[in-house]
Amino acid sequence: MPSFTRLLSRGLLACALPLAAPSHAAGFPDHPIRFIVPWNAGGSNDIAARELQQLLSADNITLVVENQPGATGAIGLAKVATSPADGYVLGMGTSSTLAQIAQNLTPLRNEQFTHIARVSTDPLMLLVPAEGPARNLADFLALMKKNPGKISIGTPGTNNLNHIFAEMTARSAGVGYVNVPYTGGSRVITDLAGKQIDGAVLKPSESKAQIDAGFVRPIGIFANERLALYPDVPTFKEKGYDVFPYGPLVQMAYVVAPAGLPAPERARLVDAFRKAIQSQKYKDFAARNGFLVDDLAGDALDKEVRDVQATLNSVATKVFKP
Q: Are 273 and 117 in contact (CB under 8 A)?
């Protein structure tokens, strides 16, 4: 019969086996992943999420896109932060939520998330109704000066990068204005086309259809260089207006999971999203929609988020009133 020592060693080994078992990431994911987009359907982040949904299906990953708008992205991302850290709930983080964090307008913190991959960086534009009184940037600023505190500029959300650039537009004119926040870019562009607001700060990806249809017109780019998609639209910089007086700002979107996501699951998601984002199909999609893509993921994305947060922490106190 086996000795007591041998029986004891076998028992200890049996107890240890569950700890030594391989991570379930070997079969991860084995059912659909919820992908929470904290903005309205039809906006730029929703459009990107649904393109990634198609591309990831080729890698045996099923994304179920859920739109949960509100509080400039904070409501949807709060649901991600409080979900189990098993990789089956992801969300779309954006610079808008980082701006909310900078002003303590949300209890969310970056430490509540595991960063997966950057989906896009988006230049922002000032747009006006195509049949409105302003034909170009000079016209719009003159209109603001003629009607101080009365010209409205719509933004998806408030106290975010779009709001910052709306404020910078008003400062370029030297007057006040009316900020009109919405729960997503699709609603902003609809009201702009209907002349319910005088101007809007939006991304090319959420404006292109209305621009192509002749309902709205881009008149200024909040960037240092013109956009390849709209080479005839000048930047604020070339017209002599500094819209980055406190340092560079980048509007970006990126995939997040809850904090504490195990390393194997994170590696699987990082690899899958990088493959999709670096595919020629996604790059062509980005070019058509006027946004940029890069290969920023994992730990490198962690650092980028910290850097953007630091800039916003400084800028927010100088732009927004406490």
A: yes
- Residues 308, 250: contact at Cβ < 8 Å? yes
β-strand partners of 65: 35
In the predicted model, is pLDDT for residue 321 greater than 60? yes
239 closest CA partner among 222, 260, 218: 222
Task: Strands of the chain (E only): list them.
Answer: 33-37, 63-67, 89-94, 113-122, 124-129, 152-156, 178-182, 199-202, 216-222, 251-258
2 confidence band (pLDDT: 50, 70, 90) = very low
Q: Which domains does the chain have, with CATH numbers?
A: 31-122+249-319 (3.40.190.150), 124-239 (3.40.190.10)
Q: What number of other Cβ atoms are within 10 A of residue 202's Cβ? A: 29
222: phi > 0 → left, psi -120 to 50 → alpha, else beta; which? beta
Give the Cα separation of 80 and 100 in Å (integer).
16
In sequence order, what are the residues at sequence separation of 6 or more whose Cβ sits closer than 8 angstroms to the Cβ of residue 102?
309, 312, 313, 315, 316, 317
Lookup: tokens for 186: 């699709």
With beta carbons less than 8 A apart as the criterion, state whether 256 and 80 touch.
yes
List, for residues 106-120, the tens digit of each pLDDT value.
999 999 999 999 999
Rounded-to-integer distance, Cα 132 and Cα 93, Å: 34
pLDDT, average across residues 198-216: 95
| pTM: predicted TM-score of the whole model, two decimal places | 0.78
